[in-house]
Amino acid sequence: MDGATHTSDRRAGIGKPAISANGSIHLNSRIVIDDEFLSCRSSVRRFRRGEVIAGAGVLVDTFARVYSGVVSASTMLPDGREFIVEIIPKSGLIGELEVLRRQTLSLEYRAGSNCELHFFEGRLLRDMYASDPCFREKVFSRALARISELELRIIANAASSLQSRLASTLLRLSAVYGKDAANSGDELIISQNDLAATLPASREKVNQCLRRLRESKIIDGGQGKIRILNRKALEACANGAVSVK
């Protein structure tokens, strides 16, 4: 995985992703890595916002933990548009399934903000997978949960208006950013291009929806930042109960 602006070695662990109180697992929940890796040596790399961390089609034998910031995982649609499949928050993992399967990366990973990643050797993950049945079960259940949520997003996108999809996306990103103790989740740092690619939709139409939400005092911000002012109203938009004109 290339594109690092700084590299060093340090010993670091991989944190466990949060699970909501009702037991649901979100798409950005990644494989749980237990305390066995706390003493393993990692390579620390820092990336600036927009830098490519790893390209699709690359065969790697390392996986990484997001120590700070966020990372976007994207692919290209048949019509040439970028589709951001997932935004990975602090403590999320990158490349773990590909390392286990010894496959090339299927997505391109890019720094969604200035971020720091800790990289680990793939053999550590494979050894644990081979020797620990409980860990294998965790890997399987997390993978199914991520696939299930992605399917639900695709179905919801097909049946919802752009305004509803945008509101749902802002709420989902709020939960992602809220995983960082330094962020309440009310302020999202994301460019309009990336927001349009996350939906996916044209930037022009997304800008129109954002303008209506700003005029209704539901959100505020600019220059790559969006601040949620009225969460209840945004939730009503996401559910289709309110349409902002």
Automatic annotation (TrEMBL):
User: What is an example of a Pfam family matching this protein?
Assistant: HTH_Crp_2
Superkingdom as given in the UniProt entry? Bacteria
Q: Which residues form the HTH crp-type domain?
A: 160-232
Q: Which residues form the Cyclic nucleotide-binding domain?
A: 45-146
The UniProt entry's GO CC annotations, sorted and at most eight, read: cytosol
CDD domains from the UniProt entry: CAP_ED
Gene3D superfamilies associated with the record:
Jelly Rolls, Winged helix-like DNA-binding domain superfamily/Winged helix DNA-binding domain
Q: Which UniProt keywords apply?
A: DNA-binding, Transcription, Transcription regulation
Query: What InterPro entries does this protein's entry cite?
Result: cNMP-bd_dom (IPR000595), cNMP-bd_dom_sf (IPR018490), Env_Response_Regulators (IPR050397), HTH_CRP (IPR012318), RmlC-like_jellyroll (IPR014710), WH-like_DNA-bd_sf (IPR036388), WH_DNA-bd_sf (IPR036390)
Select a single GO molecular function from the record's annotations and give it.
Answer: DNA binding
Name of the protein in question: Crp/Fnr family transcriptional regulator
